[in-house]
What we know:
Elements: E1 15-24, H1 41-53, E2 60-61, E3 70-81, H2 82-87, H3 96-118, H4 123-129, E4 133-140, E5 153-161, E6 176-177, H5 184-192, E7 196-199, E8 213-223, E9 229-235, H6 242-254, H7 261-269, E10 284-290, H8 297-308
Amino acid sequence: MTTERPAVPEMDGGPFRVRMDLAYDGASFSGWAAQPGLRTVQGLVEDALAVLLRRPVRITVAGRTDAGVHARGQVVHFDLTAAEWHELARGRDLDPGVSLRRRLHGVINKELTMAAREAGLQRRAIDALGGAVEVLSAVPAPAGFDARFSALWRRYSYRICDLPETRDPLSRHTTLWFKAPLDTALMNEAAAGVLGVQDFLSYCKPRNGSTTIRELQEFHFRRGADGVITTHIQADAFCHNMVRSLVGGSLLVGLGERRPQWLADRLAARIRDSKSLLAPPHPLVLEEVCYPAPAELAGRAELTRAHRK
């Protein structure tokens, strides 16, 4: 992920784009995408930006996450005028991006507390929401940057504890406590069979007008010294439910209920039915989104849009 930044926009300049990096605990949200009457990460962040900028702000995300799914490395973009950017510092000798991060922290946590009280939550539940969404950074984006279409790949992790004696109650909210021991060698054999550019219709919940063809670049399971299995999965992009479906199928293989070839056979069949297993969302974390060098951002976005069509 490049760390190069563009020049700070001139005060009298026109609209420009801001890149913002986020981390969040998805347990208290109905997913990323804004939905009427539901608490979502997008809705919360957009509402907080509207408070600071005194106008509606629409943000574009690198990868939408399902209800209950977390993120350590989510990326979004939105557009401001140069004047709005500089006004974020409120006349102080402070980087506007730093000021935006600090002020959003306050507004977001205030919004969460108010929503929790209105919902009648107990004090402990209200306190637990504090820090559920954190702005890690906000900087002027390089020319051509698009949080969604400029991305080269997204990487997720998924933690599984299949040995009762290694269960850690302190990490139970981000780890799947599985019912029986798993064979990671069989799971890795199955995972290797679905790598590459494929049509993942069997492992997706298709959206109208969207392709289900993706390049699965990395998919493996590794048991750590603590006995917990961590799944690493990386692709140019993921369809809706794709990670949880692939992990769910791998669990059936690791349990011995399916042969390793079963994942590839399902992929080739291009069907989605009751034989599929959707792994629970709470252990899934969006870890990182990778982008090309600044000079290649616009070209990457144009290419990705063409492929998605």
